[in-house]
Every structure is written in structure tokens, then in C-alpha cells.
Putative siderophore-binding lipoprotein YfiY
Amino acid sequence: MQFILKLAAVAVVTALSLSPVLAQETRSFTDDTGRVVDIPVAPQRIVSLHDSVLTIPLLELGVLPVGSHGRTTEEGKPFIRSSNVLTGIDFDNSTIHFVGNLPADVEAVAALEPDLILTTPWQTAGLEQLETIAPTLVLDSGKRDAFGMHSVLADVTGTQDRLATLDARYQSQIAQIKRLIDTSSISVSIMQGVNGQFAVWHTYGTLGIVLRDAGFVFPDRVNAIPEGTNELLSAEALPELDADFVFVTYRTDALETPADAMKYLEEVVPGFCDFLFACRANQMIVMPREEASSASYYGLGVMAYTVISQISGRRFEHKPD
């Protein structure tokens, strides 16, 4: 009996010594809360606890997490927000496991035996619980620029070369816009109707980044909004938001259509098109929000192509001063 117990003990020790989590080389990493965490140098089993902020960038960097936070449809089917249109990858066509929404299911996370957990301040699953499962980093997109999360995730996962390739492609896309369009002579604006007000960002997602990087001119009222923030403006602000071209978005993930985008603007100013130059001149461009707002290099490319196809070589009117 004692011999059997000794064999069992040896087997357990051997199994533990072969565990990929315990055998991995580690390094110290300071997360966005100031915590210093020992993480694997080359993590193999990552669980991501924010779909659009963490999982999408990971997928664009070529990293497939073993588990991800997600949303559910009215029928209860889980999905990674925007991932189908941005990466082509979702729960139903990959090996990524759904680990819940808000809060994430800690037991489901533990069952995947991760060697690294990535979370955000938005996620309400308890940090103390997560830390007992695996090294856990808290990454705050609010403390970084729009694509700062790609940079830190590339560092964490060792995919800096992939990020450099994505960035080189984007820089070429911006250079192409500048070659084809005299951007410095064209004003642009982005808005959406939200609960009877105009929602306006200093830089709205991937669309705003492309327009600013390409050198288009924004209204003074938009430039006055602090970088990284947005404001809700009343109907009286409409003239200050007008431009040669105005961009408006709608949520395809919520099955909205361009008609919904127009309806929300009508709720702010009935007959708004009569008061908006870009609309009267047929220079208001309505597009899906997922590609326009997500922090995605694919989204940047789609927006760059959209700008070229909508504006380059087109006869258009400039808004009167």
C-alpha cells in the first residue's frame, strides 16, 4: 500500500513539473494599476476579459486566446462584439471558449487552465479571484491612445513584428489618401444622435483617426473637445458641427440600418437635413459603426478605402463660410 502511495506521489510531482504553466520562463510586467506581475515570457493559454478592447487586438496580432469575454444575442448565443466583420473569428468558428460577460464566469476561466489572464477596469470579475487562477494583468484603454492596447499586447505576447507590419500597411494607406486628395482644403465632421442630443468626439474611433492622420480639417467646436473624450451637444450646436462632408454611423451588431441613423438625428432636430449643408449637398456619408469605431487595424484600412472612394475624384461643394 505504501509503495502504491509513493508511486502516486511521484506521478503527481512529475505531472506538476511537466505543467507548461509552471515550467514557463517568466518576467516582471507593470500593469496599468501599478501592480508588478510575473507573467510568462511566451504565454500559451490567454484568457481575455474584454472582447472589443482586448480580444480583437489579440486576434489581429495573430494570437488566439483560449477564452474570451463576449456578449449574447436575445436567443442567448454568445458572440465577440464586432469580431466577425473585423477578424472573421468568433466563438462558433474557433477554439475560443466563451467565459461570460459582466461579470465573467470565474469558474469557466479557471476550467481553461490559463497561464495569463488579461482584464480591464470595466470588467467586474474580482481581481483577487482571478489572481488565484493565473497571473493577471489589468490593462486600461482609457490610459492609452486608441491603438495603445495593440502596443502593450504585442509586448505581452511577443508579436511586435506583426504589429510593425500592420502599422506599415496603415501608413501606406494614409499616404495614398494624401496623394489623391487635397485634405487640407476639405472640412469633415462626425456625429450621431443619442437620446435627443448630438454625440460628438474629438476623434471618433478608426474613422476619426484616419481623417485626422490624413490631414482633413475639423470644425473648431469639435477641436475644442479634449482629446480622448466626447460631448453631448444640444440641437443649437448643429451649425457648429457642419462641414463639407459629415459622417454618421449606425450599429449593425444591433441590426440597425442607415434609416436608424437618420431617425436619431431627426430626434435631435426635426428636418435636420434642411439645416445641415453636407446633407443638403448630398455629402453626408452614413456607414456601419463597427468598422468606424473599433480599435482595429482592419477597421483603419476599411475607413481609409471609404474616404478615398467617397471623396477622391468626386465633384463636391465646399460649405459656405
